[in-house]
Design a protein that fits this description.
By secondary structure, the chain is mainly beta. The protein has helices at about 60-65, 120-125; strands at about 5-15, 20-30, 35-40, 45-55, 75-80, 95, 105-110, 115, 160, 165-180, 185, 195-200. The longest helix is centred in the middle third of the chain and has 5 residues, at about 120-125.
């Protein structure tokens, strides 16, 4: 089963690797992932219910508190992940050490919301001429046809909401794992702004460095 935990995007920096190469990296703080309980889904697959991010008990509802047993502390978020370690029981905490022997990970998060944008920023359209007198600069231009099919086709590039959607970055190389500070450092950028929660999973396509 794929190892999966949740963390907070702490920010980006750059480091010099052993070969002297300057590498841009993202620092992910693996917050306390407590196993609330283990169970089997309708297909018979074993699952972990993870509780993530501390919260005061009085800020939760009775239904939310009912998900937690005496072994696991009350958390703000609940996530279902595959049970990747049969030895872990309810109440155990999963840290960044699970990725000590992992070379690549997939990171999923919500991208930065940029509001309503035009076609040039949203879809990288060329736009029209910028000279004086031009009436076609940053607009989308014609989007439909006349008699056939007399409508705008689905998928036409138009203005609209940009960002604020789930994005996955696959095969991000694990640069280092700090078990003391519970921090995972991966190469390149990951979705979301600083402070947002991301899902970190063992890569499904790439396993080892070739």
């Amino acid at each position: 089963m794929r190892k999966t935990v949740y963390g907070i995007k702490a920010g980006m920096t750059q480091i010099f690797e052993e070969q002297g190469i300057l590498t841009p990296v993202t620092v992910i703080k693996i917050v306390d992932n407590h196993i609330v309980r283990t169970y089997n889904d309708i297909h018979g697959n074993k699952k972990f219910l993870l509780g993530v991010s501390d919260i005061r008990e009085k800020l939760t509802t009775k239904a939310h508190r009912g998900q937690f047993s005496d072994k696991a502390p009350i958390k703000r978020h609940l996530f279902e992940v595959p049970a990747f370690d049969d030895s872990q029981k309810a109440g155990a905490m999963i840290s960044a050490s699970v990725f000590s022997e992992v070379s690549f990970v997939d990171v999923q998060g919500c991208s930065k919301g940029k509001g309503t944008q035009g076609v040039m920023k949203r879809h990288n359209s060329a736009g029209g001429p910028g000279r004086v007198g031009s009436k076609f600069r940053r607009t989308a231009g014609s989007t439909g046809q006349s008699a056939t099919p007399s409508r705008v086709r689905k998928g036409t590039h138009m203005a609209g909401r940009m960002g604020n959607s789930m994005v996955s970055v696959q095969n991000a190389r694990v640069v280092s794992v700090d078990t003391e500070q519970n921090v995972l450092v991966v190469k390149g950028g990951v979705p979301g702004s600083v402070g947002t929660m991301v899902r970190v999973s063992e890569s499904i396509k790439k396993k080892v460095i070739v």
